[in-house]
# Entry
Amino acid sequence: MGAPRIHGELKKLGFDISESTVQRYMPKKGKRTTGQNWKTFLKNHMKEIILIDFLTVPTINFKLMYVSVMIEHNRRKLIYFNVTKNPIAEWCIQQIRNLLFNYDAPYRSFWQNGYVERVIGSIKREWLDHVIVLNENHLRTILKDYISYYNKYRTHLRLNKDSPEDRPIQIAGKINKIPMVNGLHHYYFRKAA
# Structure
């Protein structure tokens, strides 16, 4: 968890400190650079783009499961996923149909890019690297748990350190926490006295 995410959590708890103060206590990392043209394109079409990619997950008996992940680019919200042992073209097309049937999206184009790959990296680092997947149903169940946490509580830089489903800033009350995703992460909130 980097300084921007920690700062986002502190901001949601009503602490008025700067990100640079949090950064001062974090280990130093190399800076990342991104291409301006790609960034400008995505910014201009953000509300119309749904991002799709696949993630592979090994099970306890070393069989690979394939997860189709779809996110709404504008709010970085995970809007659809499904799991299969065999991702043939017909299955992939059906996933897109399922998304369009179940989700009223301002839908124009799909595009695989670094943003959905970053989400997949988060899913792996923050959840799947810490569990042993038993089978397809188990994978589906644990992904639902993580996606609920991701959409409701996890802060994002692009969203001004808010979660995809807007979280209000809390400034009064005692700070409490609720374990999420089998205790790997926590939801911090203020409880009125």
In short: The longest strand covers residues 49-58.
